[in-house]
Design goal:
elongated, about 110 residues, three-stranded antiparallel beta sheet, alpha+beta, 6 strands
């Protein structure tokens, strides 16, 4: 079984984030370290804070560019990574960073009841 979860970062103020395309589409900075996705746009340039997204389970994969997560015709109703069943471990360099993680679990077959 696999579980995918995702967020769209809102770093400073929602109205500004949704209209400041220079920052969100061109200069978005993301780093992934030890299963934590850090959104660091303007970190230490104009601001002294960042956002992060993490999961306490071991990750089977992650994605951070919105297009890699959602597909070429973006929509949260049918993310392409869920349809394919696999995250691609992509790191955004600009172009609307998001955060998505994939965790997978397996169980041994159930023993038949006597």
């Amino acid at each position: 079984m696999s579980l995918f979860d995702s967020i769209e970062f809102c770093l400073w103020e929602a109205q500004e984030d949704s209209t400041n395309f220079q920052r969100n589409y061109s200069t978005g900075q993301v780093e992934v370290e030890d299963g934590v996705i850090y959104h660091k746009t303007e970190y230490r340039e104009r601001r002294d804070h960042f956002a992060f997204f993490a999961c306490s389970a071991s990750l089977a994969g992650f994605d951070t560019p919105a297009r890699q997560l959602l597909g070429s015709i973006p929509g949260l109703d049918r993310p392409i990574v869920v349809e394919k069943g696999k995250a691609t471990d992509s790191v955004a360099h600009g172009w609307q960073p998001m955060a998505a993680t994939m965790s997978s679990w397996s169980w041994p077959p159930a023993k038949p009841r006597k």
